[in-house]
Design brief:
The chain is of the alpha+beta class and 470 residues long. It contains 15 helices and 19 strands. Strands 12, 13, 14, 15, 16, 17, 18 and 19 form an 8-stranded antiparallel sheet that branches. A hairpin with a 4-residue loop joins strand 5 and strand 6. Helix 9 crosses helix 11. The longest helix is centred in the C-terminal third of the chain and has 15 residues. The structure holds flavin-adenine dinucleotide.
Length: 470
Amino acid sequence: MAKAQETDDLIGSRLSDADVRELRARVKGEVITPADTEYDRARAVFYGGIDRRPAVIVRVADKDDVARVITHARESGIELAVRAGGHSAAGHCVSDGGVVLDLSRLRAIEIDAEGRVASAQAGVTAGEYTAAADTHDLATGFGDTGSVGIAGLTLGGGVGYLVRKHGLTVDDLVSADIVTADGQLLHVDADTHPDLFWAIRGGGGNFGVATRFELRLHEAGAIFGGFLVLPATAEVVHRFVAEAESAPEELSTIASVMPAPPMPFIPAEHHGSLVVFAMLVYAGAVEAGQRAIAPFRALAAPIVDMVKPMRYPEVYPPEDDAYHPVALGHTMFVDSVGRGAADAIVDRLQHGSSPMCVAQIRVLGGAMARVPVDATAFAHRRSRIMVNLAALYERTEEKQEHADWLSRFADALHTGDDGAYVNFLADEGEARIRAAYPGRTWDRLAAIKARYDPTNLFRLNQNIPPAPGS
Ligand SMILES: Cc1cc2nc3c(=O)[nH]c(=O)nc-3n(C[C@H](O)[C@H](O)[C@H](O)COP(=O)(O)OP(=O)(O)OC[C@H]3O[C@@H](n4cnc5c(N)ncnc54)[C@H](O)[C@@H]3O)c2cc1C
């Protein structure tokens, strides 16, 4: 009890003016406090409804600054949040009353086209990296959104449009530079600190602050893909998933079953009606792509068919910086989407708890599934399909209603796979974090955590408490 009170006091503690002066003197980067005009912009995150007020935000200038902020947080006991792209669903990248270590100024990218590796600092976004790599007709697979940070995404696994062809983002991670809780900068790869290298490939921000990633590049350049929007009957949903499962590995799909949004390229008469809003990416030659995508086009008369030869970076269309949705989600894996499950998807979405409810379906397999389950801290290699359910809403008092709807929806789809993908977890409690790291994975991570962060300095995350010798 006394211990818990002490921890609460530390978390609730505020930095004194002297602390802020000391930080300003210590670091080369920008130190932003509530007194600065930049403060509100600096504490805003991708998701709406997250309104935390850190005591100080440090936009670090380099890896030495990272070490200095870590040391300051450790010595002062103040809560430390680590921010890269700012897309955490739990809002873990911003602390209430603590210090935010903001990596957004670390934006350098170097491409070694001949060696097929990129070196990118931790503040780089997926879109920036992808544009830089594309100048050499190369790519690394990240997620479905360009503004997501490569740091948070990579540390949790990374499931995107190249997942079936090249695996997860972590499967392309060659090395990383990590500042650990004691302020040391470690270069981590398969041979140097292999335990840490295993842990950061899925274990999130638990083990230190990554300042740089070295990632393998693949030939990409011209590909075949784009949006395909189909009417969402149960038959179309079921057959879409079946086609995606039997498609060649070059094809990765992300299909969102949802009410058609009022986008200019969707005919107005379809706005609001339930559709399969899919992005298809065939990472290969155009003719083979045409053949792979033909069965999807044949599922129903497309409402929109924008599938065409394209450059890989076009998977990231421009985004609206002012878009900050308030959303509640549930991430899960399923073994199949049979006709019964497809019926449930269509029915639940037609009776959604909010006007904008979504079931996003990502068929996995391919290269991702060929990596042994225990090779990295991402332990869901055998999971066949990821499903992300979400309700977008406006008024906070509605939250419980959406939570109940999501929980009933998830129960209806459950096929026995109890896993969860850490990068899509919100603040959902320890059982769900354990679902992200099942069985032996949790024990291994907890032991590595005890080695590199014994006092749990990095705790504002999907936390794995240190457990020595487990
Ligand atoms: C619109 C949207 C689309 C998404 N699409 C995908 C997708 O297609 N595929 C997918 O796999 N994921 C996807 N995600 C999930 C995304 O991978 C996670 O939210 C990820 O944590 C975001 O990383 P970030 O750097 O942007 O976020 P941040 O909020 O800055 O970071 C999240 C957490 O990661 C840790 N962290 C970040 N940077 C570092 C670092 N340098 N060192 C140590 N720890 C760090 C910290 O604990 C931090 O709180 C999506 C999220 C959103 C909001």
